Amino acid sequence: MAFQQGLSGLSSSSQALDVISHNVANANTTGFKASQTVFADVYSSTLGADPYKQVGSGSRVAAIRQNFSQGSITETGNSLDMAINGDGFFMVKRPVLGDNQTFYTRAGEFQLDKDGYVITATGYQLLGYPGTAGAGDAVPIKVPYDTGTPKETSTVSMTFNLDANQPVITTTPPDPSKPETYNFSTTVVTYDSLGIAHNLNLYFVRTSNTSPSQWEAYWSLSGDKTSDPAEGGTLQGPLTMEFDGSGKMTTPVPGTVPTFSLSGINLANGATIGGVVGGVSDNTIDLNFSATQFALASSVNTISQDGVPAGELASVSVTKEGQVQARYTNGNVVTVGTVAIAAFRNPNGLVSMGDNLWIASLESGPGVAGTPGAGTRGFISGGAVEASNVDLTAELVNMIVQQRAYQANAQSIKTQDQILQTVINLR
Predict the structure, then answer these.
(1) 18 is in which domain, residue-wise?
(2) Which of 113, 231, 299, 361 has its CA 20 to 30 A from that of 350?
């Protein structure tokens, strides 16, 4: 008597139940992709067989196919978490020197390790491209923990008004300690090559109220041996400005950039400040003035300068294009890398390695790396992860179906046994 049909059915249903149980167990696993059992029928002999008398030998599991459909995107509040919205896989590798094996994952729960590398929860390093290039070999993405690089001030821009009612002062240069020797003063904070702050002090003196009305500006930079009295220097200037009868600045010519250049700066701390020419600082700060002379109190309307102090790492975020941006306390935002996304012609050919990881195989073909959004690759959702795509309702229904199939196959074996017992009992 034939028992193999029932046995094959039991084996197939048992494997299907294993797959369903695996799916259910990973319903809350980030980036998990559900699997589906594919069955095939079995025939002992097909060549030369009478097509009207073929009796099957049961069933077998032909394949266990993974479902790579999109899982829901869930916000996490962790700025380094990432979810791929679309096709593709993150590329990761072991942090072992000389290990060139690349793994692929959809689980985007990332964090920084002690060295600043972006890693998975199991310690694998995320791969990407340096800066925003998106070219070359993908390498581990590293966020510098050290201080953000300072930038020395090269340009100061101001818009301001000088009070047309101010009296003429004939004694120049002014004395910073005696307010009666100047009409108006203001201070701009600038930064040297070490990120140290220096106050640029400007003193405005009205020297003529006839047409054109004339003003002179004098300046000092704290810590400057040339201009700072505290460092043995003297006020520098004058910078001459003239205004017509309507209060508009006529000298220097409006729109001239720079309006003035403050040269000869010699900082006592040995640092440099100003523009960099040929890799060397010129120790000159350019002033861009836009001024008026109206019968209003002297005041500065806008002021800006292009220097920044040193800074420390404050936060890390990821854009939808996969750019990993480090923000520093000095306001600098640096793109330290761009996440690499791998695409496959046949994702079902990937070999699962556990820990939410896959490796490429001959069936899947090699992973083709690129930037998020390029080709068929999806974009990145920062501060979020992709949930498992397991449909619990469908899995529980499939569990019932396979349970019934298992019971039916067991009943088939029982029936075969009864028939065999009847034959044996014949006398």
Answers:
(1) 4-69+389-424
(2) 113
